[in-house]
From TrEMBL:
Chain ranges of the Protein kinase domain: 39-238
GO molecular function, one term: protein kinase activity
Pfam families hit by this protein: Pkinase
Protein name per its UniProtKB record: Protein kinase domain-containing protein
Amino acid sequence: MTDISLDDSGPPWYDKDENGRIDVLAIPKRLRTHPEIQRRGIVLAEPPKPGSVYSTSTLHDPQYAVKILRSETEERKIYEMLLVDIRNSHNHTLPAELTETGYPLLIMPRLWNYRTLHRGNEWSLYETLGYLLQVVEGVEYLHRLHIAHLDLCTGNILVSGPEDEPYHEGIVAYKIFIIDFDSAQRFKLGPGVQPAIQLPPSQTRPPNGLKHFDPYSWDVYCTGHVLNHIMLVSVHGL
């Protein structure tokens, strides 16, 4: 197995197999031997997002996910700002740690998408309203800091279960967390006064093929899609 990433290069990180082909399922040697991964004794076993996000096995606790940060984005700076205020109840950032040694990594608890919590069962009205409120609260908190996520979608909304509390500090059962600030940007101007920007690639399709949007309004539009999906899941137990 050969590591094909350069020492200072960002993701994606891959290894090549003995035949010289990229092995997208393998844990890259560069990540396995990263000083912070070794110091913590984290054994990565799965690639939720091959090339950039790897996680420990679901068979052993505590479970972690590790993201290889891209230096050309604002993600690290935004996480630094959000993690300082992690105890704020309105802050729905996933408690995590930014590494200081070696290439920058984000080490965080491995949680699950909200769809897995009540799979096959209808949610109570109280549960549904609680999740809806938390998503809106989390987005509002970001906007107060002039941060637009710009890629809010169902895949970037996680929730903690009771089994996660004993293993990770700052994790409370049934709390919604917003992840993946790859596309996020911080602006000088806040909601209502920030001009439109060219939208980065997003998992939500813009209406009418629009390519420019007020970034905060775009977040609200995407949040609407997330809330609609939560409502569908709550009723049908998808």
